[in-house]
Amino acid sequence: MEWNAYLVAIRLASDAGQVHIIERHYLEPTGAAYRYVNIKTCCGVELTTPFDECQQEDINCETCVAKIEKQQAYWRKFWSGWEGKKIIKIFTGMDRLEEEWRDSHRQTEALLQRVQAFHNLLQDCMKHHQPVFTLELPDEVLLKLMDFGSVGEILLCFKVDDESRNNLQTRLGKEGFALLGSRLISKGLLKATDPIFNRRWT
Ligand SMILES: [Zn+2]
């Protein structure tokens, strides 16, 4: 596990024997905690007050560590895969554009907006950190989704663009994919008005 500033080791007074990991943004006053109920540690223990921040060395919840390791492996794969490469291309393209079009705010602005829009999409999807099985799909579909750590990762794959969605469809087959789509809609994760079919990130 790679430790970083986004993670906090935490000991809940209600469960003093265990030191868990929680994502820092949940603890910040302007963070998601104020917008979403049921804030949980990485292993799924509900956040209760009071709690103490601990050292990384104190962490003894193996489920939390395993969860973070799985998440980090997902992102390593993501950034080395075609989605990540596309995003890197946008960012490196932005440097080039800034030089080329230093005088033309409009084009740089448009690109910045795209990067921002992608960032928002990412944030929006990844807040759904509930496990994939909560989508209540048949076992054979769930098995094909084993690489995904959370509902958010699937949602991102679904929303990011056509190519990503097509890959998901190939993986699940048409029926599985249709079922997944209808579950995401019935859980309120996708909406009929969602502009997924118009979004383009590259
Ligand atoms: Zn834990």
What do these coordinates show?
The chain has about 200 residues and is mainly α. Among the domains are: about 55 residues, no CATH class; about 80 residues, no CATH class. The protein contains six helices and three strands. Strands 2-1-3 form a three-stranded antiparallel beta sheet. A hairpin with a 7-residue loop joins strand 1 and strand 2. Helix 3 runs antiparallel to helix 5 and helix 5 packs across helix 6. The chain is globular and about 55 Å long. The chain starts with 6 loop residues before the first strand and ends in a 16-residue tail after the last helix. The mean pLDDT is about 80. The site of zinc ion (ZN) has 8 residues, from helix 1.
Span from first to last CA?
32 Å
Q: Show unreliable segments.
A: none
> What is the molecular shape?
globular
* Secondary structure tally, helices: 6
Distinct ligands: zinc ion
Largest sheet features: 3 strands, antiparallel
Helix % is: 40-55%
Which strand order do you get reading across the main beta sheet?
2-1-3
| Rg over CA atoms | 19 Å
Layout of helices and strands, plus pairs?
Blueprint: E1 7-12, E2 20-23, E3 51-54, H1 62-80, H2 82-100, H3 105-126, H4 139-144, H5 151-160, H6 162-186
Antiparallel strand pairs: 1-2, 1-3
Helix pairs in contact: 1-2, 2-3, 3-5, 5-6
This protein binds zinc ion (ZN).
